[in-house]
Fold:
Amino acid sequence: MNFSDLFLTMAQTTEIDQTSLFPFPFSLHLLFCCFSLIFFLFRFIKEKYPYQIIMAVAIPFSLVIWISESKPLFYTVGIVETVLLLTAFITSLVFRTKEPVAETLSESAEEISAEIQDEEE
Structure:
């Protein structure tokens, strides 16, 4: 047995890594997507914000990447994900709850006018 050939073969096989698109395996990606789907559906049922249902679709949609390693599919999924995330961001800004400014201003005005009346007396 020639050890130099053995070491050379071992060195070459360790240099060959199977690269993937994600830094974690499919099972972990699937678990994350299922958890996020359940989380965003639950939050949508409770709060009814549109961005929650968009995110409930967008995150599991990334699993489509695992179907094939073709470049057009990869870019298509990237474009769809970008559109969905931008839509979710914009709808989160549009549908955010605003504090009732009119009530706060009227309360402040009443307090100021009460203080002024107290100072005049």
